[in-house]
Amino acid sequence: MKIIILPHKKFCRYGKILKFNKLYKKNLCDFLLNNNININNNCGGFGRCVSCSVFINEGFSFFEINYLKLNYTLSCQFYDLNCNIIISIL
Ligand code: FES
After folding, report:
1. In CATH, what number does 2-89 get?
2. Where do the DSSP E strands lie in the chain?
3. Which of 30, 40, 43, 57 could pair with 51 as two cysteines, CB 3.0-4.6 Å apart?
4. Which residues does 20 contact at the CB level (< 8 Å), separation at least 6?
5. Which ligand 1 atom lies nearest to the CA of residue 47?
6. How far apart are CA 21 and CA 54, in angstroms?
7. Measured in angstroms, how far is the CA atom of residue 66 from the centroid of ligand 1?
8. What is the pLDDT along the chain (90 residues), one digit of tens a residue?
9. Using CA positions, which residue lies closest to atom 3 of ligand 1?
10. In which region does residue 59 sit, left (phi positive, over 0), alpha (psi from -120 to 50) or beta (all else)?
11. Residue of 26, 69, 74 to mutate, ligand 1, most atoms within 8 A of C-beta
């Protein structure tokens, strides 16, 4: 499975494809940070600051609909990655 990160001039200039083999139990923010995408996480992942926001361009339909608000989510609150997604860092 993979996460495609669309280019962002500050965090991921040329975009990136990150692969993972199985269900990733940590949140998306941790996954990005562990893969050298230095996304903001000003509150340390407590869901208070919205600095870690991402837009889910594709793949959102695989998740429970009430988990997301219009394809936008806090990456630190986004757990259990188990499918391909395409994201834009906001
Ligand atoms: S790191 Fe603050 S809301 Fe996600």
Report:
1. 3.10.20.30
2. 2-5, 16-19, 53-58, 72-74, 85-89
3. 40
4. 1, 2, 3, 31, 81
5. 3
6. 22
7. 19
8. 899 999 999 999 999 999 987 766 789 999 999 999 999 999 999 999 999 999 988 876 545 555 555 678 899 998 877 788 899 998
9. 47
10. left
11. 74
Amino acid at 73: T
Domain coordinates in residue numbering, the chain: 2-89
Token output for 65: 């609909």
Which pTM was predicted? 0.85
Best residue among 26, 43, 69 to mutate for probing ligand 1's pocket (most ligand atoms within 8 Å of CB) is 43
Structure tokens at 17: 């494809």
Q: Which amino acid is located at 23 in the chain?
A: L
